[in-house]
Structure prediction request, 423 residues.
Amino acid sequence: MMQNKRIILSTIICILFPLLSVTAQKKYDLLIQGGTVIDPKNKISEKVMDIAISNDTIVAVSGHLNARDAVKVVNAKGLYVTPGLIDLHSHHFYGTEENHYLCNGYYAVQPDAFTFRSGVTTAVDAGSPGWKSFEKYKKQTIAHSKTRILSFLNIVGEGMRGGVWEQDLNDMNAKMTAMTIAQNPELVGIKVAHYSGAEWTPIERAVEAGNMAGVPVMIDFGGHEPPLSLTRLLLEELRPGDIFTHMYANLAAVRMTILNPETGELYDYATKGRERGIVFDVGHGGGSFAFAQAIPAIKKGFYPDAISTDIHTESMNGGMKDQLNVMSKFLNLGMPLNAVIEASSWKPAQVIHHEELGNLSVGSIADIAVLSVLKGDFGFIDSAGNKMKGNRKLQCEMTVRAGEIVYDLNGLSSPMWDAPDAR
Prediction:
């Protein structure tokens, strides 16, 4: 019996040892080879390069790396290799509570179901939770997502519940908001949204909390009757580094626009706000992106600093759809591809003070998007249901999150079913 066991053990060792030896000799776990790299932080602009990954980290970026040194090789020839995309304005506090809108309610979306297929590896929730509800969000969503989830904290303690809950000035506590941010590294800023009163109190308290916590404030401005002044908001109330989202909205009855629709000229408060260092974010959403604003603004060179979705169940089934669809709109409007990628990766990383993200530097976490640019006859829809034609569209071929291939549209990383090494 002992002799048989020795023979079996010896046989197993003979089989496994060569395999273990081969694996041990490999320098990289994954090699993405021959792709056209765009990495704005490192000023790499459409250059054919190889990217090597070990464990969860980028360990080499070079003109040529030996495929024999990698356990797995992905041929990315003809494709664009970019940093994992960062959606600066999203809503992922999904749940089943009645009267909770985007705060543990039915309108928010489960992140992993919609991020990786668009090349998004980091989603920044735009104020769905407040300080009273963030702990639940952290345990319920952040802890169970492969997507990196960061968040702005709503100045309303209840969070983005909608309706009367977001009109309660007594629930806008700067001190509790700042303290919650200090205790949770996932929190990167403060959000103001949906308040319809004539007071500036929500913005003042958000900025107060932002000063205490040392984080930016994102403003969803609109719904005020009469509309509050964008001149005051952009030139007086907000600080450099604060974020004006829904920049191309055309809600004239409840919010001033950045561009005069009759003359096609940008208003002074928009250009001066940018000069002050205000960050302009797309935040497409279900009702906050109009070609009538975006097209003439882009023609004037007023590009977005950050391209984001404002994803929720209504916007994703309307004109917005997903991160790449929004990016494709700007690509067809004449924004250079490098600039589109920067506004969807490196710039958002800087805005939220997470410069370790949004780049392909050696030593960085291996969050990577592999994209193709389709050519054809495409239609793009804004929030009002108006269509623009385009001939280019971005598509995600593969997404890598912390060194793991989490999405692969066409099997770039898979062997053919009849290959000798197929399982």
Summary: The chain is about 25% helix and 25% strand.
